[in-house]
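[stage:ingest] chain + small molecule (EPU)
[stage:ingest] validated
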Amino acid sequence: MKYFENYSLKDLNTFGVESFASSFYSFENVYELIDSCHPSKDPFVLGGGSNILLLNDIDKEVWSYDVKGIEVIKENSDHVLVEVQGGEVWHDLVLWTIDENFGGLENLALIPGKVGAAPIQNIGAYGVELKDVLHCVHCINRKTGLPLTFFNDSCEFGYRDSIFKRKCKDTFVITSIVLKLSKPDYHIINDTYGAIGKVLEEKKINRTPTIKEISKAVIDIRSSKLPDPNKIGNAGSFFKNPIIDVSQFVLLKKSFENIASYPVSDKKVKIPAGWLIDQAGWKGKRIGHVGCYENQALVITSDGKASGKEIFDFSTQVINSVYSKYGIQLEREVNMVK
Ligand code: EPU
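[stage:predict] done
[stage:export] tokens:
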């Protein structure tokens, strides 16, 4: 275990916000984690720092679960169960599955962050969500040190949502996940997302694409639309895509003919927040050290000098301006750490 006092988190959050942890623990095996669990503690558990906004210094223990490892734990002729430790980098895992020709994660390429954080918001992109391939989640209770396993059905997954954001918020450390991935003849290719089809067409791939081709297409799309957090501070989509009633959508459509939308159910419609923010005039706009990304309005950027408060205030201005134009209240997707 590594332990530091008054530890800078600037390099451990993708916004590059300066914030100090009064005490910082990096766990290198599960026993060190279990030993640190105690009913009196209320630690902040840091993942890859790619979906948080640090608003202040953190005056409590910060825990980082840094155990790595990828292992096939069971297989039959059509599928494998793969256990992945929480400290693995998500994209490294995706590349490993492509190399092994195990299908299921190819649409989720290049998502920043660590494996342990992936179930919390049910990461998703290009028509696939983690819940589609997740078998179970192994956790340790932060207060008791006791292990618990959540099978897919009990994770209460939704759009960018799970039990770990609600009933079980701040209760567990996710130590590993088990994924059910397909063997070569059983891959289910998902190329329904418009942008993927376009890239495949450009590459003149007219047959069913391989998982490697899908992952390459996703990497191309993400690299062209989303800023690289190693170069420009950001945390991916800053807001969730709002889901509104069809009745509100019908009214909006009268005033804003071109409003983009995706059907969710008979009664609900999802509106791309990027469209709303773009149409409200924010795309490419900067205030001080904070900006709205020029290629995807859903992303808020920092030049590395912005404080958490400056980024938060910028996001509040975006929320207020979208609300006054469309009557839609945007919700932050990034977690605010107070
Ligand atoms: N749009 C604009 N202007 C913009 C951005 C988007 O008009 O500046 C409109 C366009 O109509 C576009 C539509 O929004 O067709 C959708 O845009 P895009 O395909 O880029 O997807 P998104 O809805 O903005 C979501 C996820 C992304 C994920 C992509 C692809 C959320 C909050 N975001 O973005 O996830 O990569 O779909 O599946 O659901 C993330 O969570 O950090 C993330 C990047």
